[in-house]
Amino acid sequence: MLIVMDKDATPAQIEAVAAKVVALGFEAQPIPGGERVAIAILRNPGPVDPAVFVDMAGVIQAIPVSRPYKLVSREIKREDTIIKLPGLEVGRGRFVVMAGPCAVESETQALTIAERVKAAGAKVFRGGAYKPRTSPYSYQGLGKKGLAILRKVREETGLLIVTEAMDQDSLKLVAESADIIQLGARNMQNFSLLRCAGRTGKPILLKRGMYATLEEWLMAAEYIMSEGDPQVILCERGVRAIGEHARNLLDLATIPAVRRESHLPIVVDPSHAAGRRDLVQPLARAAVAAGCDGLLIEVHHEPEKALSDGAQSLYPEQFEALMQDLAGLRPGGWY
Amino acid sequence: MLIVMDKDATPAQIEAVAAKVVALGFEAQPIPGGERVAIAILRNPGPVDPAVFVDMAGVIQAIPVSRPYKLVSREIKREDTIIKLPGLEVGRGRFVVMAGPCAVESETQALTIAERVKAAGAKVFRGGAYKPRTSPYSYQGLGKKGLAILRKVREETGLLIVTEAMDQDSLKLVAESADIIQLGARNMQNFSLLRCAGRTGKPILLKRGMYATLEEWLMAAEYIMSEGDPQVILCERGVRAIGEHARNLLDLATIPAVRRESHLPIVVDPSHAAGRRDLVQPLARAAVAAGCDGLLIEVHHEPEKALSDGAQSLYPEQFEALMQDLAGLRPGGWY
Amino acid sequence: MLIVMDKDATPAQIEAVAAKVVALGFEAQPIPGGERVAIAILRNPGPVDPAVFVDMAGVIQAIPVSRPYKLVSREIKREDTIIKLPGLEVGRGRFVVMAGPCAVESETQALTIAERVKAAGAKVFRGGAYKPRTSPYSYQGLGKKGLAILRKVREETGLLIVTEAMDQDSLKLVAESADIIQLGARNMQNFSLLRCAGRTGKPILLKRGMYATLEEWLMAAEYIMSEGDPQVILCERGVRAIGEHARNLLDLATIPAVRRESHLPIVVDPSHAAGRRDLVQPLARAAVAAGCDGLLIEVHHEPEKALSDGAQSLYPEQFEALMQDLAGLRPGGWY
Amino acid sequence: MLIVMDKDATPAQIEAVAAKVVALGFEAQPIPGGERVAIAILRNPGPVDPAVFVDMAGVIQAIPVSRPYKLVSREIKREDTIIKLPGLEVGRGRFVVMAGPCAVESETQALTIAERVKAAGAKVFRGGAYKPRTSPYSYQGLGKKGLAILRKVREETGLLIVTEAMDQDSLKLVAESADIIQLGARNMQNFSLLRCAGRTGKPILLKRGMYATLEEWLMAAEYIMSEGDPQVILCERGVRAIGEHARNLLDLATIPAVRRESHLPIVVDPSHAAGRRDLVQPLARAAVAAGCDGLLIEVHHEPEKALSDGAQSLYPEQFEALMQDLAGLRPGGWY
C-alpha cells in the first residue's frame, strides 16, 4: 500500500497517517517526493484495505501494491500446473477439446453426440445435468438422471466427463459422476460453493464471471486451492459488453495475462461468448492462435430441437471441420 | 418475437421460417414492409429463444417482444406491494432506513451502534454474520455467534433485523433469526439459493448483481416469488463501471424503471455504491430525492477498527446528521 | 510512479530499473518491503509512462501516483471557481437552470419555449443550431439561421444562450452568438476543438464523454484551460451502460468527486441520461439533492413534432412543475 | 419499428398509437397476439425514433427493426469491397500488414524502422505526425515536418503511408501526403471530420471508438461514404473494459459480424488493444486466425526512447518473428 498525500498536507497529517499504519501493526516509511509526500506500508502480511486511509485529512489516494493471491500465483509456484486425468493431461503444451451439448436431454441424444465428437478428436464430453437458467420457467436439466447418462457415455465411449455443479447438493452428486467439475460464471463468487468444490479433490473447471476482473477470477481459484485442491482449470467465456453482435465479449488477452500471473491452465469457451453458431469457428480459431490450453465447444446433432442454447451449438459436421481446421493452427512449437 | 428478413430473402426462405414457427407450436404472421418482410410469432405462451432463428437463411435479426417475467410484473399485479413486518411496513409511500455495521463483530459493538441508529430514526438493524469476501483470507464473519448477537439486538432495542445468507446452510439459520433475509449481489444469480429463500416465507432483500440488467434482476426476484414468497424488496447498490472515483456506479434510474415494470418495493444502498464515507451523504440524498422506498446505510462507531468496509461506514454523528438532512427532502407528497 | 518488483527479482534487475529511472532524468528510491522491493520515482515534473517499465525483467507492476492535471486541480487552486456572466453567476452555492429544446427549429418554436422556461425560472436558454447526429441522414440543425434565432431569443427574453459548437467552423460562429459554448460528449476528446474553444475567451460547458473516466474528463478541461480560458463548466450526462431501462447511466458520484479533485463548477443533464420523459424528473431531483451547481433540461411545447430527442423533452407544464418541486429540495444550507 | 402495447391497453390507446403512426406519414399494422397487441410501422423510409412512442399511454416498448445504415450495408452491396492502392489491394482474401512507430520522431528513426518493417514483409508504413493525446502536456507530434518525413519514407522504401488526421486542418495536409488517412478512436463520432474525410477521395482507415457499438461504427463509415468516398477500411482496436490486464478489450467477434453486416474490409490493431509488448503477439495471432484483412502493428527500434506508446511497440526482431509466425497461420484457403 502506498498512501499519497496532498501537496499541502501538514506534518501533523502525515504523522497521523504514519501513526495509523503503526497502529494496524505495520511499518510506515515516508517517501518525500518533489511535490508531495507518499507513505509506504511495509511488513504487512497481506493486502491492506485502502479504505482505512482514504478519507483521512491530507490523504488524496491509497494505492494497493501487494497481489492478494498466493497459491494461484506464479510467484509462489514457477512451473506450469499440469492436471493429470486418466489418459489425459491438461495444461501448457497439451491441448484438449471438450465438446458436447449444452444440456443432457436423453441417453440417445448424449450418446449420439458423444460418438461424433469423439470421432472428431474430443477427449472430454461436456453436457449439463443441472442448468442455471435466468428464468425459473426455462428447462432446468435432468438432474440425477442426467448424471447417470453421463456415466453411461463415459463407459461406452471412454470420453472423460465435465459437467456443472450448481449448488452444494448437486456438487456432491456431480463429484461422484464427473471427471472434471464445472463451476459456472454466475457462481464464480459463490464462495461457499468454491470452498466445497475445493474439498472434493476433483479437478475444477472455473468459468470467469460475467464481469469479473482477472484478479477476482484468480481469487475465486484461490478459494478452491485454499481448501487443498490444486487442480483448477480456468475457463475464459467472455465478459458482458454493450453491443449486440455477440452475446459476450471474448477476452483473449486473459490467456497471456493468466500465463504471467498464474501457473494454472486456461481453456476457452467460444460457444458462450458467441451466442450464435456462425461466430464459433472464428472465435475458436482465435483462442487457439492466442495460445489457450483447450476449448469447450457446444455440439448438437439437432440444435433446432435443443432444450437450451441451440443457436450456438455446432452441427457435428461443423465440429469435425473445425477440428481439422484447428489442427492446422497448432504446428506444435508456438507455446 | 419478431423475425426480420433480409431485403433479398426469397419466398422459400420466408416460408421456411414460418414453417419453423409452426413446428414449435406457435402461429406465424408475416408482415410485409416497404423494404423487407418481418414475421411475428403469435400464441407463444412465453419468451421464444431468438437463437433458433438467427442463423436461418435469409434472417437478419430476431427480436424478443414478450416480457419474460410474470409474478414480479406490474402487468400482473397493478397495485404496489407493501410488506408487513411487526410495527413496520415496507413499500411505496412508506420510507424505511436500515442501518448498522457491515459485519457484526461483538455484542458490545452491535449494541452500541444499534442504540445510536435507533435513536436517529432507523427501524431496522443491518449487520452481517456471514460475509462473502473476495479473498479467502479476509474476515468471514462470526456465523452463528453473530446471529445470536443480532437476536440480542432485537430484544434489547426493538429494532428489526436484516442480515445476509450466503448459502443454503446459513440461509436456514438466518431465516430463524432475521426479520428480513438479505441476498447479496454476488448471489443474485445463485438460483438454488433464490429458490430456497423463496421457501422460507420471510421477506427477502435482493441486491442487484454487480452488472445485472434490470431484466435479470427482476428474473431473480421471479425465482423467489415462483416458490410462493411474494415479499421481495429490491435493493439497488450500483453496478460496476470504469473509473475509480467511486466503488460502483449507483443507478438511480432503476427506481422509476422498477416502479414502471414491477409492483415490488425498491430500496438503495449508497454505502456500497460509494465505497468511501464522503460520498455516502450525497448519494443517499440523491436516492431519496429520486423516490426510493428506503435506504441501507453502513454505520460504525469505530470504523477505523472495523473488520470490513470501515472506509464507507458513517460515524454515528454523521448518520444522525444525514437522517435530519433527509427529513428535509421528504415533504411527504412527492411520490 | 511506484515500480513493484517480483518477489524473486534479482539485485541486477532492481539495479536496472533504478538505472532506467535515472536515465530518464528522475531520482529512484528503492523501498524494501517484507516480501519484495518497490522503487519510487521521485523528482519527476509530471506523470511518467508506466509502459516504460512494465516489461522490464523482474517488474510486475508500475503504478502511477502523480495526478496528471494541473490547472483544473483543487490542489493548485483551493477556492471554487465562480463564472460571471451578465446577471448570472455559475458555481458553488449558486444554482442555475438551463432549459430549452434539443434543437432550434424555428423562431416561433424557440421563442414560445423560451418564454415558458423563463417564466418558470430558467436563466439560460439551450437549443442546438448544429446537431451531431449518429446518422448522416438525421436532422443536422439550422446552422447560422439557428444562431440568429438564438440571438433573437436573447434580445426578446433576456435569457442567456448556451449552444453547441461541433467543429472549428461552427465554433467561430457560436462564439459570436452564445454566452456559453457547449462541447458535446462525442467531442470531449476532440483535442483540436478543445484548444480552439480555450482561445475564444468564452465560458465553455464541457459534457462528459460517453465512457470517459473522471480523469479523462478533467484532462479535457485542462486542454481548454491550458489555452488560457479558466471558465469551464463540467456537465455530467451519464455514461453508457448495459441495460435498456435508461439511455445512459447518470453518475452522480461525479458531483462530490469533482468537488474534491477540482475547483470547477459541475452541472447535470438529466434529459440525455434519461432518454425518456418519465425519468427526467426523478433524475433531476436526484442531481439537485446530490449537490450539483445547475441543470440542463430539454423542454419542448410540441415534443411529438420535435426534430430530435422529442421523447426526452418535458412539456412546459412538466417543466414548471419540476421547477417548483426542485425549489423544495434546496433549502439553501446544504452545499 | 414494432410498438408493444400493455396487456391491458384499451382500444382507445391502441387507436391513438396507430393514429400517431399515420400522422408521421407511415402505415400502422396492428398485430393481435395471445396476450397483447403490437403495432408494426410500415412504409417508413428510414429508422423511426422509438422515443416518440415510448411514453404514450398503454405502450410498454418500441423496438427498432430497420437497419439505419445503407451504403455500408451488405444488403445494398453484396460483394466485398476491395480497395486498390498502387501495388496493393486491401480487402477480403488479401492480407496487409501496416507497421511502424506510434509517432514519427525524426527522419533517421522513421527510415530505420521503415527499412526493417519492409524487409519483414509490411506493405504500409504507419507513423503519426499529429498525435491526439489525453494530456495537453504530452508530445503532440512533428506536424508538417512529420509529413515530410513520411513522404521521404515512401520515396526511399516504396512503402505506402498511413497516418492520422486529427482535425480539418491536418486532414488537408495529411490527404496530400498519405496513401491512407487514419481517423482515430476518439474522432470516430467527430461527424464534421468524417464528412471532410469523405470528400478527400482517399482511402480512410476508421478506428472503432473507445466504446462504440458495431452500429455506431458502421454509421460513422456511412458518414464518410455518404460524401462519395467508398474506400473505407474499418479498424478494430479494442473497447474499454474494466480490468487492468490489458489496455483495451480486443473484440474479435467484430470480424465475422462486420463480414455479415457490411462489405467493407476490416483490419485489427493489436498494439493499442494490448498496451504492452508481451500481449501483442498472441493478440495479433488471434486476429489473423479470426479472419481479419490486415494488421496495424507498432514497431520501434528503440522503444524505451519512444516519445509515445513505447511499451506496446515491438522491437524489429520481434516484428520479424511475428511475421514469420503469422505466415504459418494463413495457409491460404480459410477465409
Largest sheet of chain A: 8 strands, parallel
Biggest sheet strand order of chain A reads 13-12-11-10-9-8-7-14
Indicate the percent of residues in helices of chain A. Answer: 25-40%
Number of strands of chain A: 14
CATH class of the largest domain in chain A: Alpha Beta
CATH topology of the largest domain in chain A: TIM Barrel
As an assembly, this protein is homotetramer
Largest interface, chains and sizes? A-B, 49 and 49 residues
Descriptive terms for the model:
homotetramer, 335 residues, alpha/beta, Alpha-Beta Plaits, TIM Barrel, eight-stranded parallel beta sheet, 34% helix, elongated
Report on the structure:
- The structure is a homotetramer of 335-residue chains.
- With 335 residues, chain A is α/β, with parallel strands linked by helices.
- Chain A folds into two domains: 2-63, Phospho-2-dehydro-3-deoxyheptonate aldolase, domain 1 (Alpha-Beta Plaits); 83-329, Alpha-Beta Barrel (TIM Barrel), CATH 3.20.20.
- Helices cover 34% and strands 18% of the residues of chain A.
- Chain A contains eleven helices and 14 strands.
- The first copy, chain A, has helices spanning 11-23, 51-54, 107-120, 144-157, 168-177, 191-198, 214-226, 254-261, 270-274, 277-289, 316-327; strands at 2-5, 27-32, 37-42, 59-63, 83-85, 88-90, 96-100, 124-126, 160-164, 180-183, 204-207, 232-236, 266-268, 294-298.
- In chain A, the strands form three sheets. Chain A has an eight-stranded parallel sheet with strand order 13-12-11-10-9-8-7-14. A four-stranded antiparallel sheet of chain A has the order 2-3-1-4. A two-stranded antiparallel ribbon of chain A has the order 5-6.
- In chain A, helix 3 (107-120) runs parallel beside helix 4 (144-157), helix 3 (107-120) packs parallel to helix 11 and helix 6 packs across helix 7.
- Chain A is elongated.
- The interface between A and C is medium-sized, with 27 and 27 residues.
